[in-house]
Amino acid sequence: MQLRRELLAVIEQETARFERAQLARATAELTERYKREGPGSPAIGSEVHRAAYLAVRLPATYAAACHVFRQVHAVASQLEIKSMLDLGAGPGTALLAARAVFPALERATLLEADVGWLKTGRLLTATLAVETQWLQHDLRAPGDLAPHDLVVISYALGELPQAAGESLLRRAWQCATKLLVIVEPGTMRGFAGINAARSWLLANGANLVGPCPHENACPMAAAGGISGPPGRGDWCHFAQRVERSSLHRSLKGGSLGHEDEKFSYVAAAREPVALPQARIVRHPGRHSGHIQLTLCTAEGIAMRTIAKSRKQTYKEARKADWGDAWND
Fold it and tell me: What are the distances in angstroms from CA 74 to CA 80, 97, 173, 211, 298?
């Protein structure tokens, strides 16, 4: 997945203000911060850190958000999204992705505590045909939030202390008139936070949209994943391939022209939607004469073997990917 040219131009403009060695150090520091994972102060502490983030993290989180919004829109296409509230907006990544997926989006409110991100976000979203309002706001602060069709918490909930995160989740759901989407890193800890939010939403009358094809207990959380005991098995997450720029490769010391961003998410709606029969939760296994799918279903994790003799179904399975909905 590639960013639009106008976005790449702003990123090049912001990163050009610093020496390559400065950006490389800032990238390494950001990587160490993300490895520590957990509540704490924001990882972005200076202009060079923000520039490094734009180069190496924004393309990845944008790709994840695009994947999530596309899957949500496919299941709930009847929900016309005209307004969006982004809680912890950073440089406006989620809005950039939402504008690419929801054609009716015309107004967005973006809350962000960091003044530097407010400035950069205005640059990145300036060319969007969306009325935007940027507000400086600490997500830990109490207060009511204005109603919006779509409310997004992307890569922000897990950075808050537990009590603050629970408060934000309650307020986010209260002001989501149609849809709430939460995205976290695709780690065991990120999934644990998503699963806790999923449980809370179901207990408070929400209707799941994705990725779950059912509202039963998560089979991965209940059984420790696809394999292994709790804490040692797999967990529900997905991946999106991201094309790396030459600067990206240089700053991260990588030779590949791409990387895979792993993420977990949950989406919930006010009104019930028609859920798919299953969700593909692993890369499809493509073999000679058949394709094997690992599916999350209402009955738990299931394996499906799609033989070549099932011509139409086999054709659909060949095009299917990790994270897609699946209907037999």
Answer: 12, 15, 21, 11, 19
Tokens of 52: 């490094």
Is residue 272 within 8 A of residue 205, CB to CB? The reply is no
Q: Report d(CA 226, CA 256) in Å as an integer.
A: 29
Number of other CB atoms surrounding residue 252 within 10 Å: 18
| Residue 320 backbone class (left: φ over 0; alpha: ψ -120 to 50; beta: rest) | beta
Phi, psi of 121 (to 5 degrees): -60, -40
How far, in Å, CA of 49 to CA of 91, rounded?
A: 13
- What would the two tokens of residue 260 be? 């895979």
Place of tokens 């939607």: 273
Rounded Cα–Cα distance for residues 113 and 90 (Å): 8
Sequence-distant (6+) residues with CB within 8 A of 316 are none
DSSP 27-96: HHHHHHHHHH-SSSS-S--SHHHHHHHHHHTHHHHHHHHHHHHHHHHHH-TTS---EEEEET-TTTHHHH
pLDDT tens figures, 256-299 = 666 889 999 999 999 999 999 999 999 999 999 999 999 999 99
The 10 Å Cβ neighbour count of residue 49 is 21
Contacts for 52 with CB less than 8 Å, ≥ 6 apart: 15, 23, 26, 27, 30, 251
Query: What band does 229 get if pLDDT is binned at 50, 70 and 90?
Result: very low
Contact 174, 145 (CB under 8 A): yes
Encode burial over 26-48: b for 16+ CB neighbours within 10 A, e otherwise. bbebbeebeeeeeeeeebbeebb
- Establish whether the linkage from the previous residue to 91 is cis, with ω within 30° of 0: no
3-class SS letters over 59-71:
HHHHHHHHHHHHH
For residue 206 the two structure tokens come to 């929400």
